[in-house]
Amino acid sequence: MYITIDGDDIGQMITSSYLKNDLNELSRINHIVNEKTILISEFLKDYGFNIIFCAADGVAAYAEIEKVDEVFIFNSIKSIAYPQIHFSVGVGSTLREAYIALLSAKSSGKHCLHNFSALN
Question: What is the pLDDT of residue 120?
Answer without folding.
Answer: 73
